[in-house]
Design a protein that fits this description.
heterodimer, A: mainly beta, four-stranded antiparallel beta sheet, B: mainly beta, six-stranded mixed beta sheet, five-stranded antiparallel beta sheet, 56% strand
Amino acid sequence: DSGVTQTPKHLITATGQRVTLRCSPRSGDLSVYWYQQSLDQGLQFLIQYYNGEERAKGNILERFSAQQFPDLHSELNLSSLELGDSALYFCASSLGVAGHNEQFFGPGTRLTVL
Amino acid sequence: ILNVEQSPQSLHVQEGDSTNFTCSFPSSNFYALHWYRWETAKSPEALFVMTLNGDEKKKGRISATLNTKEGYSYLYIKGSQPEDSATYLCAFKGSGGYQKVTFGTGTKLQVIP
């Protein structure tokens, strides 16, 4: 158990809908990262937040947005969902913002878009 | 677009064999390289974070080396065990304040008892 929690574990929804994935980092960690793993692709970095502020951005679609709240939990919002958005979404946390900090991954949220 | 490549894509070894695989990354603007172990149906688990050229890290039977000048890192597993079966991912982080993390596609290791 990494100490990072993600909810829900599974999510099934329809195309065109909007969903919110939630992540609570390890106690004491200030950075949160979001990743997407699609069936035929590796782990893709989406976005990083540090202490409430966006710090790095990867291949995140405009239909997706994220934020980190004052209590440091983070939410990833996915809207106008398409079939291709079906994937496993991981959240990870680390102590600081620097790239040399070890990241601890949550169990993931599996999103299925029908 | 950053190229982070891992080879081989997959590997089958006998229990007790030692093995190694490679992660290649851009040799410029290096900041850090991470290695992760990812077992099926679980989450990636951090193995090493490497930041200095010539770094060598070790955890039990697993070790890693880093060459930032030529842009590669090796992961070694000594005396492979069935429980080592997993996908091993490397992730590159470039320097500069707003650099994203780029993952390789992984090396899938299967240790045959």
